[in-house]
Design a protein that fits this description.
Layout: H1 9-12, H2 25-32, H3 36-46, H4 49-56, H5 63-73, E1 75-77, E2 92-94, E3 97-99, E4 103-105, H6 118-129, E5 133-135, H7 143-149, E6 155-159, H8 165-177, E7 182-186, H9 196-201, H10 211-219, H11 221-229, H12 245-252, H13 262-268, E8 273-278, H14 281-289, E9 294-297, H15 311-322, E10 327-331, H16 337-345, E11 350-353, H17 355-387, E12 400-402
Parallel strand pairs: 4-11, 5-6, 6-7, 7-8, 8-9, 9-10, 10-11
Antiparallel strand pairs: 1-12, 2-3
Helix pairs in contact: 2-17, 3-17, 6-17, 10-11, 14-15, 16-17
Bound molecules: flavin mononucleotide.
C-alpha cells in the first residue's frame, strides 16, 4: 500500500511557476504561441474574417499553396552527430550586404489593413533582426515615410509596372532617393489571380459598410476601433482605389511587359535588380541574361496561377542553371525556421516570407511580427544544431532530400 505524507514547502516550491509576469494580454498570447502556425490561430481570432482570408487565402482551389507547404513536409534532413554545435552562425550576405540570417520579409500589399502599425512595424523588426524588408508598390506607406520610420533597415522596393511607364520610373527614382538598396520587379502578375475567398467575402479596398461589416464590428471591436480612429486606409503611391484587389490590378497593371522591358529598367536603376516570380529554368536564364542580379523562385504564395509549379521542387534546377551568375531566393509556404534551413541547404541564398510575418502582425502588431521573427530564428538555430552544422555556408544538399510524394 502507498504511504502518504504532507509535502514540505521546500518540496512544493519548484513546482510553482517563476517565469516573467506578463500583464499585457497581447504579450501573453504572443508568448504562448510556440510556432508561426499558433500565431495564425491567434490572428484568425483578432481580425475580421475577410482580412484574415485576404492574407491566408490563395488563388482558385489553393492547390499551389498547399503543394508548396507539402513540399516542406516532404523534406528529410540528414544530420551528422557528435559535432560541436554550441555556437551556430546563421549570418550570411544577401546582395553583398551582411544579413544576420538568410531571411527577407517579402513585399505584401495593403499591410496596414492587417494592423494599423503596418509596414513601418515590419520594417523596424527586420532592421532589429538584421534582415532586408521589401516594401510593395501596393503598400500603405510611401518609400519616404518608410525610410524615415526604419532608417537602419536594409530596404528593398518592390515594383509593379502599370500602364503609365513614367509613373513606374518616378517610383524607381523615389525609391533610390529614399535610400532603398535593391529593386524587386514582380513578374508573375500580368493580371490578377482569382482569390476566391475574397470574392466570397465581398472583400473590397477600402472595406465597404454592409450588414455583415456591422456584425463584424461587434465581433472584432479592437480592429475596427483602430481602423476608424486612425488615418483612412489607402495606397501610398497609388491614387487608384475602389473595388476588389483583382479589379484594381486588372484595371491598372500592364500585361504587355516582356523580358525586353528589363533593359530600360536596368538602365533606370543602377543598384541590384531582383526578379520575383520565376518558375522555370528558361525564364531564370532569360532574366539573368537581361541583367538581373538575383531571382526569386516563387509562385506568389499560390496567389496567382493555381496549380503552378512548386518552388521547392524548382529550386535545384534553377540554381544549377543560373546560381553562378545570380543569387537565387525562394518563397511560398515557409512557416518555420526549419523550412528556411531546408531551402538554403537545397541551394537558396535566402528565403522570403510573407504570411509568416503577417500572421504575427495580425496577432499583435509590431510585437507579433517580432515574435514571428524570433520563432523563425530560434527554429533555424535549433535545426542547424540538430543537423550538426555550424555555419550557413556549410549547408548543402548532402543535408537534405525531398521524399517522393506519398501515394
Ligand atoms: C497578403 C499578401 C499580399 C501580397 N502582396 C504582394 C505584393 O504587393 N507584391 C508582391 O510582389 N508580392 C506580394 N505578395 C506575395 C509575397 O511577396 C510572397 O511572394 C508570398 O507571400 C510568399 O508566400 P508565403 O506567404 O507563403 O510566405 C503578397 C502576399 C500576401 C500573403
Amino acid at each position: 500500500m502507498t504511504r502518504r505524507r504532507i509535502p514540505r514547502w521546500s518540496e512544493l516550491r519548484p513546482y510553482l511557476r517563476s517565469g516573467p509576469v506578463r500583464l499585457s494580454p497581447v504579450e501573453r498570447r504572443l508568448a504562448a504561441a510556440a510556432t508561426v502556425w499558433d500565431l495564425r490561430t491567434v490572428a484568425r481570432r483578432h481580425v475580421p474574417r475577410a482580412v484574415f482570408d485576404y492574407v491566408d487565402g490563395a488563388a482558385e482551389t489553393e492547390i499551389s499553396l498547399r503543394r508548396s507547404r507539402d513540399a516542406y513536409a516532404r523534406v528529410e534532413f540528414i544530420p551528422s552527430v557528435l559535432r560541436d554545435v554550441s555556437a551556430v552562425d546563421l549570418s550570411t550576405t544577401i546582395l553583398g550586404r551582411p544579413a544576420s540570417m538568410p531571411l527577407v520579409f517579402a513585399p505584401t500589399g495593403f499591410t496596414r489593413l492587417m494592423h494599423q502599425e503596418g509596414e513601418p512595424s515590419v520594417a523596424r523588426v527586420a532592421g532589429r533582426m538584421g534582415i532586408p524588408y521589401a516594401l510593395s508598390t501596393l503598400g500603405t506607406t510611401s518609400p519616404e515615410d518608410l525610410a524615415a520610420a526604419a532608417p537602419q533597415t536594409d530596404r528593398w522596393f518592390q515594383l509593379y509596372l502599370w500602364n503609365d511607364r513614367d509613373a513606374g520610373l518616378e517610383l524607381v527614382r523615389r525609391a533610390r532617393a529614399a535610400g532603398f538598396t535593391a529593386l524587386v520587379l514582380t513578374a508573375d502578375t500580368p493580371v490578377a489571380g482569382a482569390r476566391l475567398r475574397d470574392v466570397h467575402n465581398g472583400f473590397t479596398i477600402p472595406p465597404t459598410l454592409s450588414v455583415r461589416t456591422l456584425i463584424d464590428i461587434g465581433l472584432h471591436p479592437g480592429w475596427w476601433f483602430d481602423k476608424l480612429t486612425t488615418e483612412p486606409l489607402r495606397f501610398a503611391v497609388f491614387s487608384e482605389t475602389g473595388g476588389t484587389v483583382a479589379d484594381l490590378i486588372n484595371r491598372v497593371f500592364d500585361p504587355t511587359i516582356t523580358v525586353a522591358d528589363l533593359a530600360w529598367l536596368r538602365d533606370a536603376w543602377d543598384g541590384p535588380l531582383v526578379i520575383k516570380g520565376i518558375q522555370t529554368v528558361e525564364d531564370a536564364r532569360a532574366v539573368v541574361d537581361a541583367g538581373a542580379d538575383a531571382i526569386v523562385v516563387s509562385n506568389h504564395g499560390g496567389r496567382q496561377l493555381d496549380r503552378s509549379s512548386t518552388p521547392l521542387e524548382q529550386l535545384q534546377p534553377v540554381v544549377a542553371a543560373v546560381g553562378d551568375r545570380a543569387e537565387v531566393y525562394i518563397d511560398g509556404g515557409v512557416l518555420s525556421g526549419a523550412d528556411v534551413i531546408a531551402a538554403v541547404a537545397m541551394g537558396a541564398r535566402a528565403v522570403l516570407v510573407g504570411r509568416a510575418y503577417l500572421y504575427g502582425l495580425m496577432a499583435g502588431g509590431e510585437r507579433g511580427v517580432a515574435r514571428a521573427g524570433e520563432l523563425l530564428r530560434t527554429e533555424a538555430v535549433r535545426t542547424m544544431q540538430l543537423l550538426g552544422v555550424q555555419e550557413v555556408g556549410d549547408l548543402d544538399n548532402s543535408r537534405v532530400r525531398l521524399r517522393p510524394p506519398e501515394a
